[in-house]
Design brief:
Order of helices and strands: HHHHEEHHHHHHHH
Largest sheet: 2 strands, antiparallel
Low-confidence stretches: none
Strand order of the largest sheet: 1-2
Number of helices: 12
Distance between the termini: 51 Å
Helix content: over 70%
Strand content: under 5%
Oligomer: single chain
Number of strands: 2
Length: 257
Amino acid sequence: MKIEEIEFILEPLREQLRSHELYNELKSLSDIQIFMESHVYAVWDFMSLLKALQINLTCTTLPWKPVSNTNTARFINEIVLEEETDVNELGVLKSHYEMYLDAMVEVGADTTKISEFLNGVKTLDSILEVIENSDLNIAVKSFLNFTFETINTQQPHKIAAAFTFGREELIPDMFLKIVDQAGKDTYPKLEYYLRRHIELDGDDHGPLSLKMIQELCGDDETKWYDVLECSEKALQQRIYLWDHIATAIQQNKEITV
């Protein structure tokens, strides 16, 4: 099994995401607010997937020792640099998660819930319990549980699968249409965040993440099937999250009519 075969098998799920009803629901500012208030958890837990890869594929302990795959280590370190310490639209160093929070404030979305949740997160050992005891909606809980259960396997090829195939390929293009309709100067922080992701994911991160999986799996068929299974689950979790957000937006429209 190779990347091309996995992509072929995953295509129905990816098409389900591409044609999801959620995109047609995002028409007003309140729709964007509802979306971002749930989606922010996916922005946050992506960073934990990335740091798990950094821990497993680069040397983060002392004394330092060379890693087995310098190409993969370089790729991961580059993404960490760009995701954790990028430059925002004002030239200030910020993580992409912090840029997303700034964009939420810009559109009037509530950031208190995600901030309170993170204040309760202390260790990886307790994260699943924190998620379970939180008042997050069922879809966000399921999404986060899958992420951290995958991380807890400590198997880089599985983490890389969730990282590579579970990412939001369609969000930047979809959001930019809304931003453009609203006016280019209306949401500069959100527009910058989205354009930055289009630039990084399309030109660099996407192709390199596929290469990373190829190098992690090699000729090990078991690992390739693990990647397929994990990728399917990641996409199913994304669809479930999209289903929930679409329903929440629809219900809000019914209340406000």
